[in-house]
Write a structure and sequence with these properties.
alpha+beta, endopeptidase fold (from Nostoc punctiforme), 6-stranded antiparallel beta barrel, 19% helix, 31% strand
Length: 185
């Protein structure tokens, strides 16, 4: 019994950034229709990432933002150091909020902006299998069109995921320039 408890604890610890999402049912386009329109010109795919690959070190490496710590802490850590906003741009990190489902938050790196409400990302450990997900569409489903709520493409099922995820916004890789000081005359 003790071994089972330890095993469950280890699995929980390795769960990482996100939990499985599964396909959308009952709402949105069919799998065939969704795949043909949403992924046109893309090749959503999942590749091996290596043991214990998590979203934070992957995002740090791809975006070149040297922040450390759990994904949910990045938004606050970036304050005053990096531009933060709700406007997607290639190379920016989309910071997912810490929730019951995303206990550590999550980070994705924007690789393309397809429209005002759709981007393409690459990210690691999205389905908790230490894999890298490439060419993944993400759709802004927020009522205010402000990227505060998103739906992520479910690559294995070739449909939009059923869950809506809260996000903080985008952290842009270029460091903020210090405000010039005025010289006293």
């Amino acid at each position: 019994m003790r071994k089972l408890s330890i095993l469950i604890g280890l699995i929980t610890l390795l769960a990482g950034c996100a939990s499985g999402d599964g396909p959308t049912s009952g709402s949105g386009p069919s799998a065939a229709g969704a795949a043909s329109g949403v992924t046109r010109g893309l090749n959503p795919r999942i590749a091996r990432g290596g043991p214990r690959l998590q979203c934070v070190p992957y995002a740090r490496r791809v975006a070149g933002i040297p922040i450390r710590g759990d994904a949910w802490t990045w938004w606050q850590q970036a304050a005053g150091k990096y531009r933060r906003d709700r406007r997607p741009a290639v190379g920016a990190v989309l910071a997912f909020s810490r929730t019951r489902r995303l206990r550590l938050g999550h980070l994705s790196v924007v690789t393309a902006v397809r429209s005002p409400r759709e981007i393409v990302v690459t990210h690691a450990n999205w389905l908790n299998r230490e894999r890298i997900h490439y060419d993944v569409p993400v759709r802004d489903v927020s009522k205010a069109n402000d990227w505060s709520a998103v739906r992520v493409w479910y690559t294995p099922g070739k449909v939009w995921g059923k869950s809506v995820y809260a996000t903080r916004g985008f952290i842009h890789p270029a460091r903020k320039r210090p405000t010039p000081r005025r010289r006293a005359s």
